[in-house]
Amino acid sequence: MSFLSSALCLRSLPLTRPALALALAQSACRWSVRPTPGPPFCRLPSIRSISTYPPSWAAALLKRNPQFKSLDWTDVQAFRTILPSPGGVLTSIRDPTNPDATTSSSSSASVSADQLDSQEALQAYNTDWLKLYRGQAPVVLFPETTAHVAAILRYCQEHRLAVVPQGGNTCVTGASVPVFDELILNLAKLNRVRQFDPVGGVLVSDAGCILQNLEAYVEPRGFTMPLDLAAKGSCQIGGNVATNAGGVHFLKYGSLHGSVLGLEVVLPSGEVMDLLSTLRKDSTGYDLKQLFIGAEGTLGVITGVALQTAPFLPVAVLLGLNSYKQALDTYALAQKHIYQNLSAFEFWDRECFNYLLESGANAPSEPFASTYPYYILVESSSSDEDQNQESLSKFLDILLQNKLMGDGTISFDQSQFNRLWAYRESIPSAVLRHPSLAYDLTLDYPHFYQVVEVLRDRLRQMGLYDGYKGRGNVQAIAGLGHFGDGNIHVCVVAKDLNKEVFEAVEPFIYEWAAERGGSISAEHGLGILKAPYLHYTRSEVVIRTMRQIKTVFDPHGIMNPYKVLT
Ligand SMILES: Cc1cc2nc3c(=O)[nH]c(=O)nc-3n(C[C@H](O)[C@H](O)[C@H](O)COP(=O)(O)OP(=O)(O)OC[C@H]3O[C@@H](n4cnc5c(N)ncnc54)[C@H](O)[C@@H]3O)c2cc1C
């Protein structure tokens, strides 16, 4: 397991908090203020072996589009001309006149010569994070400049080569890996910060910059990135934009549709579409950059991103709750009393938490003396420290007066803040390292957690689920998510992730959400996993218009085929 320096995980936090100390002193018997254990979450580990069962019938039934050319040695030579630097081209295709020659340009610092020589290196890029999908791309390209991307796409369109843009490969819908033998265009080497405006807080960077590295860049300058997610140690800002990622700070900073000020995009034709504005206001015709936000690489390759960052001084509180009703009431009070300082309101249930607490030697311990069925992490942040403390103190007092939580703990310093967040951020990996199906729904509050209960009842009746790690094949039906955004992730963990489990859950869960006006994909996109279910949340007219837009930008359909629109 490789981790980046833990220093990159640190966030700025003032050390003295008199107002909070007062609130805690007044209620010391109800609060556990001891430091909470657990490492901060950093670079994502690789988690499990390839599933034996295809998670989507549609994926299993897809056929390769015969209009796409298969990659061969001539293409490899052309790519080596475009990317002459060491490590620019990774391929298993051999020179037919000299089949024993090395399979790569040469070694590089980030990818060793041994790796480059091995099929294993190609497999890593061909396999998605959940290890549910594996493509067979014989070529991965690592451009370092926008001009490289432009030359590659121009070549690919001319020769009808299908392309999968790839960022950190952390998406959970299969969108970032080939379905068949599409070329992988990995943006990892396009990773420079281009400029930062310390007055306006506008950051312009290459698309391949890792989110956590950008956070480490802006944080000492007194700012934070407008998005934060548990995959931050691996995902790239270009991938975040391409998936319209949400994450834990969506509540305060909103969608990337708002915080992305500009984009630089290379179209399949090789033309560079310069939309890289740093202006907050620009009302001059169609706002084309919005089309690339959430397009999952189906319209073009994002090479540059201009983002509005924000000032940030946060405090976090972890609460153990006895009922879902308490979560609803706590959220209503947080909105009222923390109001615009409320920067995260995260939720998870006991089944999720168990997976983290039972995750081995390095697992954190229980945060409280008692266990609870629900947990909430509330974060308050502001550039005005006094105002931040005041509103949080008031909020905590009111929670105590109303007996709205079983227990709670608060961060007094940076390391406690990181440790509280490590609980939340480590849960997805802890759960999803087991064979599981994961869903990403937006539901209104009456239905937010009901979906978990309904699914438990359904699978119990079918004899598949008998409680957490019970006798049923399904070992857990767990819920966690961005409560403040109405976004719940439902995880169905099974001993044997077989057809019976799959058919018990899908399409039932999508239909259930659609009937209640929910979204079948809140923030993860559609990829290949959910492309067949688009009609549950988009009308025929909308889907037809999406297809027309796709044709305008990508007339030969070479960009990330088989994804989003099937
Ligand atoms: C543990 C864990 C926690 C997560 N938590 C969250 C969360 O809280 N919120 C959330 O929204 N997501 C979350 N995700 C999902 C994932 O991290 C996000 O979707 C992320 O934005 C993907 O970024 P990436 O760089 O890894 O992109 P990839 O996975 O490499 O690619 C994702 C899609 O974007 C396209 N793409 C990538 N780069 C570019 C580019 N430069 N130009 C054009 N297209 C491109 C790909 O073709 C693909 O379609 C989580 C994932 C994990 C594993």
Brief digest:
Residues 90-114 are annotated as: Disordered. By secondary structure, the protein is an alpha+beta fold.
Structure, described:
The protein is an alpha+beta fold and 566 residues long. It folds into 3 domains: 57-186, Uridine Diphospho-n-acetylenolpyruvylglucosamine Reductase, domain 2; 193-311, Uridine Diphospho-n-acetylenolpyruvylglucosamine Reductase, domain 3 (2-Layer Sandwich); 314-515, Alpha-Beta Plaits, CATH 3.30.70. 32% of the residues lie in helices and 17% in strands. The protein contains 20 helices and 18 strands. The protein has a 7-stranded antiparallel beta sheet with strand order 15-12-14-13-17-18-16, with helices on both faces. A hairpin with a 4-residue loop joins strand 5 and strand 6. Helix 1 (18-26) packs parallel to helix 14 (385-401), helix 12 packs antiparallel against helix 14 (385-401) and helix 13 packs across helix 15. The protein starts with 17 loop residues before the first helix and ends in a 13-residue tail after the last helix. The relative contact order is 0.14. The structure holds flavin-adenine dinucleotide. The site of flavin-adenine dinucleotide has 37 residues, from strand 3, helix 8, strand 10 and helix 15. It catalyses: (R)-lactate + 2 Fe(III)-[cytochrome c] = 2 Fe(II)-[cytochrome c] + pyruvate + 2 H(+). Its cofactor is FAD. This is FAD-binding PCMH-type domain-containing protein. Residues 90-114 are annotated as: Disordered. Residues 101-113 have a biased composition (Low complexity).
